[in-house]
Design a protein that fits this description.
about 180 residues; alpha+beta; NADH Oxidase; 6 helices; binds flavin mononucleotide
Length: about 180
């Protein structure tokens, strides 16, 4: 098995983190991974917002009513914002950069979890995007794809394996 496939098997969504910050060199490597991601027409239409202040992480964790609360206990979050005017494939551009960051996290011995922001409500009045836009001063032209919570793992999850069920998803020379 290749090193990369091994890493992909090991990566799981981690939602519990040790009370320990991520070293600045590792934060830089996570960001470099995002910056090295391919983009449509090399548009590099993303921006990465690094949050490592506890009070701000607490506020970020409230972006959604459910499925985001664990961000409050992460030492680090990277918010991926993308400019849809620069390139219409903004979801793809942001998603690939996010995936690179998550794989780099695993390679650095860190855990991570994607929190969906686009198309999710904060409450019945405003979107999760607008909530984050306000607290992080993100310009109106940017769409906010997700929050990636990152930190040292405080939970162990079984690695994934490609089994017979998943192999049935592969179709050769036609569906
Ligand atoms: C597009 C996308 C959106 C996700 N949104 C959330 C989320 O809002 N909250 C959360 O806790 N996990 C979220 N996840 C993590 C998934 O629940 C997780 O990847 C999935 O259950 C598979 O588990 P694994 O990552 O451990 O293999 C998201 C993952 C993706 C790819």
């Amino acid at each position: 098995m290749s090193d990369l496939l091994y890493l992909m098997e090991q990566r799981r969504s981690i939602r519990r983190f040790e009370n320990r910050s991520v070293e600045p060199e590792k934060v830089e490597m996570l960001l470099q991974a995002g910056l090295l991601a391919p983009t449509s027409k090399n548009s590099r239409s993303w921006e990465f917002i690094v949050v490592d202040q506890q009070d701000l992480l607490q506020k970020v964790s409230l972006c959604r009513e459910h499925y985001s609360g664990f961000v409050a206990n992460a030492p680090l979050a990277i918010i991926v914002a993308v400019d849809p005017e620069k390139n219409d494939a903004w979801i793809e551009n942001g998603s690939i950069a996010s995936t690179f960051i998550e794989l780099q996290a695993e390679a650095l011995g860190l855990g991570s979890c994607w929190v969906q922001v686009t198309r999710r409500p904060h409450n019945e009045r405003i979107s999760a995007e607008d909530y984050l836009r306000n607290i992080l001063y993100i310009p109106d032209n940017m769409r906010i794809l997700n929050v990636i919570a990152i930190g040292y793992k405080a939970q162990e999850l079984e690695p994934r394996h490609v089994d017979e069920v998943l192999l049935s998803k592969i179709h050769r020379n036609g569906y």
